[in-house]
């Protein structure tokens, strides 16, 4: 009976060990934890983007988080456009190409950097 219980216990432990997910994923090459996807946050307040200009690497996701008011995030050349953001809502866009991306709020700014506007520089 003890042998039978030992076999059942070992079988259960093997199943658990095979199906367990590691708490930290390691890079195969260096054994270091993998970095989470690159994300940068721009805060949207009453009439400004903070920071106004950011520089990021290709593949970075920019998150615009609206703290107050009603705003949109609109690229001057049409690369991206959010829905209307209200308090506590956010919009994300991942930049896959290098370049300079000017944007503005459709309610409080204009293309060309007037009033509520910002820039993402992607290298």
Major sheet: size, sense and barrel closure? 4 strands, mixed
Q: Could you give the count of β-strands?
A: 8
* Count of runs of 4 or more consecutive helical residues: 1
* CATH fold-level name of the domain at 39-122: Immunoglobulin-like
End-to-end Cα distance, whole Å, is 67 Å
Low-confidence stretches: 5-36
What is the ordering of alpha helices and beta strands? HEEEEEEEE
What coarse outline follows from CA principal-axis ratios? globular
The helix/strand class is: mainly beta
Helical coverage, percent range: 10-25%
Write the CATH architecture name of the domain at 39-122: Sandwich
The CATH C-level class name of the domain at 39-122: Mainly Beta
CATH homology superfamily of the domain at 39-122: Cupredoxins -  blue copper proteins
Q: Strand sequence of the main sheet, in spatial order? A: 2-1-4-6
Proportion of residues in β-strands: 35-45%
Structural Rg: 23 Å
Describe the structure.
This protein is mostly beta strands. It has a domain at 39-122: Immunoglobulin-like, CATH 2.60.40.420. It contains 1 helix and 8 strands; from the N terminus they run H-E-E-E-E-E-E-E-E. A hairpin with a 3-residue loop joins strand 7 (99-110) and strand 8. The chain starts with a helix and ends with a strand.
């Amino acid at each position: 009976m003890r042998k039978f219980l030992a076999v059942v216990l070992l079988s259960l432990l093997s199943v658990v060990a095979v199906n367990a997910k590691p708490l930290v994923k390691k890079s195969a090459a260096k054994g270091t934890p993998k970095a989470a996807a690159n994300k940068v946050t721009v805060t949207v307040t009453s009439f400004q983007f903070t920071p106004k200009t950011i520089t990021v690497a290709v593949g970075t996701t920019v998150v615009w988080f609206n703290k107050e008011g009603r705003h949109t995030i609109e690229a001057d050349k049409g690369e991206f456009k959010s829905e209307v953001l209200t308090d506590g809502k956010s919009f994300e866009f991942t930049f896959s190409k290098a370049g300079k991306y000017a944007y503005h709020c459709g309610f409080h700014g204009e293309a060309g950097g007037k009033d509520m506007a910002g820039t993402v520089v992607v290298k």
